[in-house]
Amino acid sequence: MSRILGLFEGEEKGPLVVLLGGMHGNEVAGVKAIQEVFRVLDEGHIHIKGKIVGLIGNLRALEEHKRFIDYDLNRVWNDGYASLIKNDPEAFVYAEDLEGAQLYELIQKFSTGDYTSKVLVDLHTTSAENGNFIVIPEDEAQNAIVKALHLPVVIDLDKYLEGTLLKFMHDQGYISFAFEGGQIGSSKALLLHTSGIWEVLSAAGSIIPLQNDEFAKYSRVLQEMSESLPKTVRVLYRHYVEEKDGFKMVNGFHNFQKVNKGELLAKDKFGTVESPLDGMIFMPLYQEAGNDGFFIVEEII
Ligand SMILES: [Zn+2]
Fold this sequence. Notes:
Elements: E1 4-9, E2 12-21, H1 29-44, E3 49-56, H2 59-63, H3 79-85, H4 95-111, E4 118-126, E5 132-135, H5 144-148, E6 153-155, H6 165-170, E7 175-183, H7 187-204, H8 213-226, E8 232-240, E9 248-249, E10 257-259, E11 264-268, E12 271-274, E13 279-282, E14 292-299
Parallel strand pairs: 2-3, 2-4, 4-7, 5-6, 6-8
Antiparallel strand pairs: 1-3, 5-7, 8-14, 9-11, 10-13, 11-12, 13-14
Helix pairs in contact: 1-7, 7-8
This protein binds zinc ion.
């Protein structure tokens, strides 16, 4: 498999849209959605402005169906990391060193050019239900592309998660956000990601919004899925876990479910883990790997 899923370039000036799937190798919906959209772009002779690029984040982990091989590729991005991966590949120690290096080199390569704007969409899926939301730095929360997706917008997550690619690219002038499409392995996630990519391409100005039933269906999907969910939430708390903690979430929690202070949320080797405050639970951990047990968020107006 190639790290480059596809490249479309229009003759007219326009935005650069980088679509990224498989930053976590166990999350394949984003990759499939990019392939699906690119198939239609290929067949449909759709007029494109600027450039649309599809990339795989952690190619080796994707091939091995793992979240990551040696370290989480979405928790390492900063200037120090960027200079590390610019070094000689011979000196790389961990599998993800090469993954990060190749990914960064490609993004840099495609970034050069005269664009009206630069957009990076990092496609993910989560391990709990109702995992459809956008993660973006607060100053971009009202961005038109983000608004077009209708999904809940989560701000301040970057204060808790060190080294996400979206934050790193934001600092390099990109409108960059994570687009969480729902539960890992669900067909809903593929549909939501496909719908979302079409909306992003329209809202960014890469394509003229398509006037057909298929596209109308995609728009409806996004609206309907978001109807019962909050519009914008702020992260208030993160429960950090280490692998040795034996952290085990109580079954059945879904994203944006209301929880009360003192409510039993999980167990670990130290005993019970209770909610430290009233709010909504967010990204409860229902998979083996990861250091974020859960977050508590509040809706903001
Ligand atoms: Zn992910």
